[in-house]
C-alpha cells in the first residue's frame, strides 16, 4: 500500500493505492472520505485499488467554495494522470458517481467502465442543495447531520456515520453541495457507450432505486441490481454485497 499527494488545480489531493492487477478507481460520497471503501477493497485482492479523497474531504485540501462539477472531474483526471492510470473501471458512490459519468464523457482513455452506486445523472433540483450549503456554513456539520442520516437511511450504522460526518469539514461539504446543485448529466450520460453497472440500496431515500435505474438505463447494455436491506452508503453497510456484484460485473466485462 502506498499513499500519494496529488497536485490538482487549486488543491492537493490524498490518494491511496493497494494491490496489483487491473485497476479500479473509487470516489466516495458527500461528507465522508476514502474509508467508505475499506470493506469493499478488502475483498478485491486481485485488483489495483486506487482511492482518493475529493477536494474538501478527508485528507485532501479544502479550498473555499463553491466548487464546480468540472473541477471535481478535473481532480479525478489529475489523480489518474499523475498515477499513470488508463483503462480503469471507475466506481463512484453518490457524488462520486457524478464524477464517474463526467470522467467517462471527457476521458474514455481513462475510463473503460463505470459503476454507479446510489448515484444519478441529476440529484434533484438545485434549491435544496443551496439550502444545505447555507445550513452548514451557518451552523456547522451538526446542523445538517440529522437530515443526512435520515436521507441515507443506514439504520444500524447511524452512530458511526454520525461520528464520521461530525469530523467532516463544513466548507468542503457546502462547496460540494453547490457542485451537485449545478449538475445535470442526462444528455452527456445518454451518449456514453461503455460497460456500466448501477447499484442501489432498496432503502435509499437520498437517491431512490428508480432514479439510479433510470440513469443506468441511459447507457445501452448496462446492468442494474438492488442491494437488499441497504440505504445510501451500501459500501459501508453492505460491503460483501457490493464487492460480490462488482466482482461479477468485472468478470463479465473481462476486467480481470
Automatic annotation (TrEMBL):
One of its GO terms (molecular function) is 3-oxoadipate enol-lactonase activity. Keywords: Hydrolase. It is an enzyme of class 3 (hydrolase). It comes from the Bacteria. The keyword Lyase does not apply. Its EC number is 3.1.1.24. The keyword Acetylation does not apply. PANTHER family: HYDROLASE ALPHA/BETA FOLD FAMILY, PEROXISOMAL MEMBRANE PROTEIN LPX1. This is 3-oxoadipate enol-lactonase 2. The gene is catD_2.
Amino acid at each position: 500500500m502506498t499513499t500519494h499527494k496529488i497536485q490538482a488545480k487549486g488543491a492537493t489531493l490524498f490518494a491511496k493505492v493497494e494491490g496489483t492487477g487491473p485497476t479500479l478507481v473509487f470516489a466516495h460520497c458527500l461528507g465522508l472520505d476514502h474509508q467508505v471503501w475499506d470493506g469493499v477493497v478488502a475483498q478485491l485482492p486481485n485488483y489495483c485499488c486506487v482511492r482518493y479523497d475529493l477536494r474538501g474531504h478527508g485528507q485532501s485540501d479544502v479550498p473555499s467554495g463553491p466548487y464546480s462539477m468540472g473541477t471535481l472531474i478535473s481532480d479525478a483526471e489529475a489523480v489518474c494522470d499523475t498515477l499513470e492510470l488508463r483503462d480503469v473501471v471507475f466506481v463512484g458512490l453518490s457524488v462520486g458517481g457524478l464524477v464517474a459519468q463526467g470522467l467517462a464523457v471527457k476521458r474514455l482513455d481513462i475510463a473503460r467502465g463505470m459503476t454507479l452506486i446510489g448515484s444519478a445523472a441529476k440529484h434533484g433540483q438545485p434549491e435544496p442543495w443551496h439550502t444545505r450549503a447555507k445550513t452548514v456554513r451557518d451552523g456547522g456539520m451538526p446542523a445538517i447531520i440529522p437530515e443526512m442520516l435520515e436521507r441515507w437511511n443506514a439504520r444500524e450504522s447511524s452512530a458511526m456515520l454520525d461520528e464520521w460526518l461530525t469530523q467532516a469539514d463544513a466548507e468542503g461539504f457546502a462547496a460540494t453541495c453547490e457542485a451537485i446543485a449545478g449538475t445535470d448529466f442526462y444528455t452527456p450520460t445518454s451518449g456514453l457507450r461503455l460497460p456500466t453497472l448501477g447499484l442501489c440500496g432498496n432503502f435509499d431515500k437520498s437517491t431512490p432505486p428508480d432514479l439510479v435505474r433510470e440513469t443506468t438505463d441511459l447507457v445501452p447494455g448496462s446492468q442494474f441490481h438492488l442491494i437488499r436491506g441497504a440505504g445510501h452508503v451500501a459500501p459501508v453497510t453492505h460491503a460483501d454485497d457490493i464487492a460480490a456484484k462488482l466482482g461479477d460485473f468485472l468478470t463479465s466485462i473481462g476486467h480481470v
